[in-house]
């Protein structure tokens, strides 16, 4: 009897409307575990190279893990994978909420979707039964309306719904997928893949409990972690200030991404801090399935000319900056409104902010005129323009149509040197953490297999001092010494090899980075014991780290097949320059040669050819990926 | 010489105060101030005094405010 997982993987073809259920053996689960590892197995086995991301042959995979949904803190997450329409690489995004655990309770470990329906549909899965239902009446509707209608027609308020809004339907290349209106598979444009398949939503409902190997042990560890969560200042900070707490440090230091990365100095930064947020727009906080931290912000605005519905959550740090200071905007109420619109239409707020900031800079520099912007005065700080442009992107109208394809595409079309105003890795717009002060984050931006992402490894400051939580609590991985946040030497590179793999394990298993060390209070030993007590497998961190490394190599090979090379493992040019303005003026530039050396050394540490970043045969065999050897010959 | 230490973010929870006040009769490094205030440098990412971001070896020579910002992760 399987513990933790159901043993059922649902394969659905939306072209033929047929489905089948696969029952892989235990060793399959023990090799791939779920999430991106499981998804990449099917993407490499079942998808031909150079499949169009928006073609029916792209696979869209929803994958929790063998432990997703265990009633323990911070393990609610699931992954969506497909070839990304934004990057052309393996696409991936994880989300919290309740949908992942509900899918497991409904009887499935993953859903693998191929084909495309001629008319809009949604999928309804209840206790092992699968139905494809018409969504013609839902097509074009925003997420709040869609959720309400589906719950009403299924006569079930407890059904959990992952869905796309109009941006996904309209194939915006950074459209995302949302569950419960506020938990996002945010990046890589996977909502557009869902839209290309005419799949509006997946509603799931399960009444069977997830079978655990040792329920009492899970319960005991959960109580211990929960007690510490309530007492610990770091967890209290997450609960009371949330991710917006990040704003103040960056703003006061002068490294808050502003005006499309032309400066880190934003003089109105006080208006964006967690303290201002709490005083002005915060309605409350929410959490995910079985998590006591409750870090998610809920915002509300109720003014005559500006209303923000709390049902869509509230802006987190990335959103506050990308739709705020990055566009020169310091009005939290407008940022909350912009966030609400993105959430109604399902657009990644990072990419949305980045393409709008790019367009604003083009306008300021005279590369775009009012003729190009449909008459909008698209200057930095124009908060009304921000809201209008979000609508235009979602519905692909005028300038919004151009921006809906991402900043790289837009810059190529605009030309006139506008390429120097985009900041991306593998065509994905960079997040709001400046690697000039956290060089490990920069390594991860460059090496991420799905384009720049800030959640690809724990950040450098957690390892800066011998008393740092990362150094004290992660010795089991061999992390024994501190490394400075701005160091770019071999010890930093070696540390981030481990951290990349470690958080990749989190992604695969559906573990939230905010639940366990170094970002929070759950220990590595406790997490390992939860995994063991859920599955009954006497696993170790050695086995788990190999799992993470396996998936990194699988993604590397997927991308090699699609034509990516070591030349794509780069950083935007802006980070090789000093900060301009503010307390860090004239400091901070990353040395490009040092960075290139670091990348090469990382390849060596990974067991990849240092000249081209291709995994060696020995590495593939070590990881049980001998079935991929032909791909690297 | 009066030094006000302002604790930001979760540091105010960890050290149970927004502001700590210390007095010195001669110039003092940030390192010594942190030690005297029993604040672990492992918790601190940025240190700001006036308009400057400084390191722990920075010498303070007159009454001033020292702002401490906590380590910052993803979000």
Could you explain the architecture of this structure?
The complex is a heterodimer of chains A (633) and B (75). Chain A has 633 residues and is α+β, with helices and mostly antiparallel strands. Chain A is built from 24 helices and 18 strands. Chain B has two helices and seven strands; from the N terminus they run βαββαββββ. The interface between A and B is medium-sized, with 40 and 23 residues.
What layout of secondary structure does this protein have?
The complex is a heterodimer of chains A (633) and B (75).
Chain A: E1 9-13, E2 18-22, H1 26-32, H2 35-46, E3 60-63, E4 78-83, E5 90-95, H3 99-105, E6 110-114, E7 121-126, E8 129-134, H4 143-153, E9 160-163, H5 166-169, E10 177-179, E11 183-185, H6 190-196, E12 199-205, H7 215-231, H8 233-240, H9 245-253, H10 274-280, E13 282-286, E14 296-299, E15 301-302, E16 307-308, H11 317-322, H12 332-345, H13 349-364, H14 383-394, H15 399-403, H16 407-414, E17 424-425, E18 428-429, H17 439-447, H18 469-473, H19 490-509, H20 524-535, H21 541-561, H22 592-606, H23 617-622, H24 629-632
Parallel strand pairs in A: 1-6, 7-12
Antiparallel strand pairs in A: 1-2, 3-4, 3-6, 4-5, 7-8, 9-10, 9-12, 10-11, 13-14, 15-16, 17-18
Helix pairs in contact in A: 2-21, 7-8, 7-20, 12-14, 17-19, 19-21, 19-22
Chain B: E1 2-7, H1 11-14, E2 19-23, E3 28-29, H2 30-37, E4 44-49, E5 52-54, E6 59-60, E7 64-70
Parallel strand pairs in B: 1-7
Antiparallel strand pairs in B: 1-2, 3-6, 4-5, 4-7
Distance between the termini of chain B: 39 Å
User: Element order, helices and strands of chain B?
Assistant: EHEEHEEEE
The tally of strands of chain A reads 18
Structural class of chain A: alpha+beta
Q: Which fold name corresponds to the CATH topology of chain B?
A: Ubiquitin-like (UB roll)
């Amino acid at each position: 009897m399987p513990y933790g997982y159901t043993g059922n993987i649902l394969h659905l073809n939306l072209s033929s409307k047929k489905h089948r259920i696969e029952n892989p053996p235990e060793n399959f689960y023990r090799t791939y575990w779920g999430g991106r590892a499981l998804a990449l197995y099917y993407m490499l086995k079942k998808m031909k190279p150079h499949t169009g991301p928006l073609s029916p042959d792209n696979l869209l995979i929803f994958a929790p893990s063998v432990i997703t949904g265990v009633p323990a803190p911070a393990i609610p997450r699931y992954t969506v994978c497909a070839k990304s329409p934004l990057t052309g690489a393996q696409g991936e995004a994880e989300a919290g909420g309740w949908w992942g655990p509900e899918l497991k309770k409904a009887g499935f470990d993953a859903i693998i979707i191929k084909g495309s329906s001629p008319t809009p549909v949604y999928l309804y899965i209840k206790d092992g039964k699968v139905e494809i239902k018409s969504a013609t009446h839902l097509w074009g509707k925003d997420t709040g309306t869609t959720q309400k209608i589906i719950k009403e027609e299924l006569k079930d308020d407890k059904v959990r719904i992952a869905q796309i809004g109009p941006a996904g339907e309209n194939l915006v290349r950074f459209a995302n997928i949302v569950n419960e209106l506020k938990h996002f598979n945010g990046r890589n444009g996977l909502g557009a893949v869902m839209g290309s398949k005419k799949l509006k939503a997946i509603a799931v409902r399960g009444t069977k409990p997830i079978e655990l190997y040792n329920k009492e042990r899970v319960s005991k560890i959960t109580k211990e972690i929960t007690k510490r969560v309530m007492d610990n200042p770091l967890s209290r900070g997450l609960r009371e200030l949330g991710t917006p707490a990040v704003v103040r440090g960056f703003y006061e230091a002068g490294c808050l991404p502003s005006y499309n990365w032309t400066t880190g100095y934003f003089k109105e930064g006080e208006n964006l801090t967690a303290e201002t947020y709490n005083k002005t727009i915060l309605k409350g906080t929410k959490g995910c399935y079985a998590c006591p931290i409750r870090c998610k912000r809920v915002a509300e605005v109720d003014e005559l000319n500006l209303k923000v519905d709390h049902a869509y959550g509230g802006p987190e740090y990335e959103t506050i900056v990308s739709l705020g200071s990055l566009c020169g905007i310091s009005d939290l109420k407008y940022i909350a409104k912009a966030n609400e619109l993105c959430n109604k239409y399902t657009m990644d707020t990072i990419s949305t902010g980045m393409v709008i900031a790019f367009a604003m800079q083009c306008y300021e520099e005279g590369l775009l005129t009012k003729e190009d912007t449909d008459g909008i005065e698209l200057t930095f700080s124009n908060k009304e323009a921000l809201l209008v442009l979000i609508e235009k992107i979602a519905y692909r109208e005028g300038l919004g149509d151009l921006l809906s394809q991402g900043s790289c595409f837009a810059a190529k079309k605009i030309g006139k040197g506008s390429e120097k105003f985009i900041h991306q890795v593998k065509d994905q717009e960079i997040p709001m953490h400046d690697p000039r002060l956290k060089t490990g984050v920069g390594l991860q931006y460059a090496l991420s297999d799905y384009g720049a992402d800030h959640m690809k490894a724990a950040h450098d400051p957690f390892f800066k001092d011998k008393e740092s939580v990362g150094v004290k609590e992660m010795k089991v991985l061999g992390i024994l010494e501190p490394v400075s946040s701005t160091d770019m030497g071999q010890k930093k590179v070696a540390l981030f090899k481990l951290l990349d793999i470690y958080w990749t394990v989190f992604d695969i298993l559906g573990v939230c980075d905010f639940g366990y060390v170094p970002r929070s209070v759950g220990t590595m030993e406790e997490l390992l014991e939860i995994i063991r007590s859920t599955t009954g497998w006497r696993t170790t961190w050695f086995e788990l780290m190999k799992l993470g490394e396996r998936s990194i190599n699988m993604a590397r090979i997927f991308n090699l097949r699609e034509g990516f090379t070591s030349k794509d493992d780069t950083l935007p040019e802006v980070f090789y320059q000093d900060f301009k303005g503010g307390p860090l003026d004239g400091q901070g530039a990353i040395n490009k040669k040092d960075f290139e050396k670091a990348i090469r050394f990382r390849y060596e540490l990974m067991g990849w050819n240092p000249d081209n970043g291709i995994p060696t045969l020995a590495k593939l065999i070590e990881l049980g990926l001998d079935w991929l050897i032909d791909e690297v010959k | 010489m009066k030094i006000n230490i302002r604790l930001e973010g979760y540091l105010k929870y960890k050290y149970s105060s927004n502001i700590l006040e210390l007095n010195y009769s001669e110039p003092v490094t940030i390192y010594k101030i942190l030690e005297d205030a029993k604040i672990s440098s492992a918790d601190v990412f940025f240190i700001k005094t006036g308009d400057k971001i400084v390191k722990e070896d920075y010498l303070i020579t007159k009454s001033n405010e020292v702002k401490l910002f906590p380590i910052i992760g993803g979000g």
